[in-house]
Amino acid sequence: MRVTFNANGREVEADDVWEGESLLFMLRERLGLPGSKNACEQGECGSCTVYLDGSPVCSCLVAAGQVQDREVRTVEGLADAETGLDPVQQAFIDAGAVQCGFCTPGLLVQTHDLLEREPQPSDSDIREALSGNLCRCTGYEKIMDAVRLASARKCHTSEVSQ
Q1: Domains of the chain
Q2: CA neighbor of 120 nearest in space, from 87, 149, 151, 88
Q3: pTM of the predicted model, to two decimals?
């Protein structure tokens, strides 16, 4: 089957899609968007999190055919071509919240979503938002620091622009 949808702001088409293949497989193997990682294939680890029509989903659990005529935004789509990295991406780098990088794409998408909904989240809010994302090597304190830093930067930027 052929699947046509919007990926990171541009119309894309994937051919010869097997109806049972996952969105994750299609993104990585057919469209060359390797940011989302394939880890558990059961929606337990969060490494493959992407936006689907503006809501975070585990792309390993979404059938590729389900995205026909819909909008998908991957971790690659968070960066802005004109301004560079999203503040969330830069904060993860600056706070040292990236080691092996396997969990990072899902954490970035979830953090981005959290800060869109709650610009100044409490530590409890952060833990709840990231509870579906597993990290085995960085340790969660650096990740918490990164979310706090991204929040502070986003709030400072919005205060300056007002």
Answers
A1: 3-78 (3.10.20.30), 87-161 (1.10.150.120)
A2: 151
A3: 0.93
